[in-house]
Design goal:
There is one protein chain. The chain has two helices and three strands, in the order E-E-E-H-H. By secondary structure, the chain is an alpha+beta fold. The chain has a three-stranded antiparallel β-sheet.
């Protein structure tokens, strides 16, 4: 649903897409930001496919994915 409002990401006023959960808004996002999010997801998917098919050892894939900066408990 498109409504007038402020984008939760870039803080610009204008037409935004509204994601609702029953009666309250979860987030508002403008066309520019939603395009950036979708492109980012597509790039991440392509990057992961390239890494999987590159024949790198597992520890290098771990490093390139940035897991070294986000240790898991």
């Amino acid at each position: 649903m498109r409504v007038m409002g402020m984008c939760s990401y870039c803080q610009n006023l204008g037409l935004v897409y509204e994601q609702e959960d029953q009666t309250r808004s979860l987030f508002l996002i403008c066309h520019n930001c939603i395009t950036d999010v979708v492109e980012g997801i597509e790039l991440d998917t392509k990057r992961n496919e390239i890494r999987r098919n590159s024949g790198l050892p597992p520890h290098m894939i771990w490093f390139l994915n940035g897991d070294w900066n986000n240790p898991k408990p």
